[in-house]
Amino acid sequence: MAPCFSFWLHPSQLEFDQLVAGGVFNLTHLMLTLVLGLLGVMMYRLLVNLERHKRQRYFQGIAIFLVILEIIRMLWNVVAADGWYAKDVWPLYTCGIFVIIFPFYAFNTPIQKWTEGFIALGAMLAGIVFLIYPSTGLAIFPLWHLNTIISSIMHLMMAVIGALFFFDSQKQLKPFDFYSAMVIVFLFAFISFIYNLMDPATNFFFIKAPFAETPLQWIFDWLGQPGYGITILGLHVVEGAVMYALHQRFIFKEKTTLAASLL
Known about the structure:
Largest sheet: none
Number of helices: 11
Number of domains: 1
Shape: globular
Strand content: under 5%
Order of helices and strands: HHHHHHHHHHH
Low-confidence stretches: 256-263
Structural class: mainly alpha
């Protein structure tokens, strides 16, 4: 019963300290990364070869699946915890933001165009960074744990879907896509900032303090606040601008260029 019990155990419970985290940059992390990487490549190849309308149906299924996973994660943080921990419940982090906005694209809503930039410019890199350093997964939880599995799936889907958008050589990203992506970033950063002020126990968007044992800690130690918070927002802007420039320079191919290459 111990493995089954540990699968649901919440960090707020005293028994959680007895669990052995999967760890990072070890064999467990390497094997999980290889498995997720292989699954990601297979999913990318499957989706990229589909016609757009068929791919959209897959996107709808994925969006529903991710929302269900997020609801399970939120409920687990309520039911399994020994109290109310808002910082663990509300999805005001990058992966949670993706889960919130992706259905608006998948189901062709009126604000679909406002979501494309965030997905194309931010999702892939955020997903890959988590696979390299699973700060909310193996760094804290065992491999066989609900949170590890949900976090891994969510970030894998972020990486795959983000890659589909970013590497789409037939669709040119416009300045609007960059600006709309920044609107989403700053909107959720503002919501997180306000919530963090109202509840000192929260650190949404990691805007108040860095996640422990990450390179962001160096920035926090050097600049403190508000320098750290401003830098976090600045890094999002720089990352979006660099991804936008890379897509414009190396990914997008104008129809005239494509036609010429066929002659």
